[in-house]
Every structure is written in C-alpha cells, then in structure tokens.
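Provenance and format

Records in this collection were gathered into a single text stream. Each protein contributes a sequence line and a token line. The two records reproduced below are adjacent in the stream.
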Amino acid sequence: MTTTVFNAPVLDTAARQERLAGRVSRLRTRTGTGNLDRWLLLLGGVLIPLGFLLVVMGWIGASRTPYLFEQIPYMISGGLLGIALVFAGGFVYFAYWQTLLVRESRTAREDLQAALSRLEHLLAAGVAGTVAEAAANGQPHTGLVATVTGSMIHRPECAVVAGRTNLRAASPDEPGLTACGLCEPLTVFS
C-alpha cells in the first residue's frame, strides 16, 4: 500500500475569498443579461414575414403551371413550410408576450412587497411611539389618542388629529372623554 502526498500551495483566506467573489460576479453577469425577450421579438419578427414570403412564392410558382404534379412541390416547399414558419413566429411572439407579462408581474410583486414592508415599518414605529408615550404617562396602551386640551378620543389615523403634534395617549374609560364620530374609536373595544 502506497501513500501519496500532494504538495498543494496553501492560499490564504483573503486570496481565496477574492477568487470566489470574482467567480460569483462572473456567474451573475452571465445569467443577468436578460436579452431573451429581445431575441424572441427579433425571431418572431423574422419568422412571420419569411413564412408569408414563402407562401406567396409557392403560390406564384404553382400558378405558372397547369399540371398538378408540377404544383405539388411548390405547395409543399412554399405553402406548407411558409404556414409552418408563420405559426412558429406566432408562438415565438406569444412567448415574448408571456415573458413581458412575467417580468411585469414580478416587478409589481416586488414593488408591492417593498411598499408593504415600508408600511409595516412605519406602523411598527408609530405603535412603538404611542406605547412609549403611554408608558411615560403611566397609562395602559390602547392605541387611542386625544389632544392635550380636547375632550374626544380618536384613532391615530383619524382625519381630525392627523398631522398634529400635541397628542397624548388616551384610554376609552378615561372620564370626560367622548368618542369621535368620524373614526369611531370605541368599535375596536366592542
């Protein structure tokens, strides 16, 4: 039994990571070209007119002779091949259309996810601020607000108090406060 030992050069980790990053960046550029839709559009734009041209050429060739055995090769080479190219071009155009629909739906989904993420982040920051104010005042957090001198309880998104800075956390059982008629804040607790 023989044992073979390979003397491979040992690379430091920084060089290995740099080499790996270079290879990964080349992979991304290869797959990220995204010119498939242009090629489909170009191929469909060539196949359909070429098919119609072959059909017309087959008809012209077949119309110059009265004999059926001379017309059949024109019908096969021009007519049938031309119709096949027109159908193939139509399918390629359909694939182009589907590619655009998929890209648009992905973009719309990503935009929607980003908007929902921003909204979630803003809502979490707003609720955290209301909780901190309620804790500082020694009140339980209910998510309801009132102006400093006001006598009505509102939801924070109510049009009456939207954009105001002089708000305090309010409780539905706080004496002297009535519910706003626009946002109906007590429906949350019923």
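Adjacent record:
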Amino acid sequence: MRFILSALSILAVAMLATTAPTSTQAGERYGKQKVVYHINYPGGKDDKKYQGAMRNIQNHINAVGAENLDLKVVIHGNGIGLMQSANKKGKVQTAVANLKTQNVNFHVCNNTLKGRKISYKELYEVFDEDIVPSGVAELSHLQQQGYTYIKP
C-alpha cells in the first residue's frame, strides 16, 4: 500500500511540474498590468518586512512576466528605511538591485526627505528623477492612471 501511495505522489508531482504555466501562458492569463506597490512602514527586525515586500514583487514579476508589467514602488514615511537599508550590502540591496534590472521603478517622497532631512544621495540608487513631490499624492495619481494598488 505504501508503494502505491508513493508512486501516486510521484506521479502527481510529475504531472504538476509538466502542467505549470509557461511565461507565455502566464502572459495570456494575466495580460499587461500596471501596478503600484506602497511601502510606508519600517522594515522590522533584520529588515524582514522589506525582504518580504521585495519577495512579493519578485513573485509578481515571475508570475506575470517582466515584459507584461509596468511596476512602480512608492516609498514614503517610515518606508524610506527600505532605500536606507539597501544602501548597505545585504539581502535588501540585492533584492532592490535585482528588481531595478527588471525595470521596477522606485519613487521616493520628497516630503519625507525634507521632513527627515535626508538627501536622496544617501539612499541606494535613487536619482533626482526618482523623487516625487508627495508619496500619497503619487499613489493617487498612479491609481487615476489605472495602476492597481498593492500594499505588501
């Protein structure tokens, strides 16, 4: 009986592996997407929350395909810690750098920078064109343009 159950388990796993959607199938299922991820919270112990958010974004890309996504991340308030943490070598930096190579755009709130007296030059790979006047206004603006809002 154990042998039969083991054989059935192996067969089920093999069937799942051969029926997993390809990138083309995923594109057909999900189509083109415009998405904005909202980060305004601290990273927690060892930046676990930031790592989780970056993993969510990567999983989204993996499911839909980078070619089918226009994906932006809006950062303000305590979320500024994401780009500060990414400025140090480690998992957060690796995740952010990897997402940037997949055309994920990170937008940083100028109100947060001014309020906290932080220069964008102190943040990981943030440039003048990445700064938006207001994080919350940017979220509203993007939603008006048809971006789906996600808060990981």
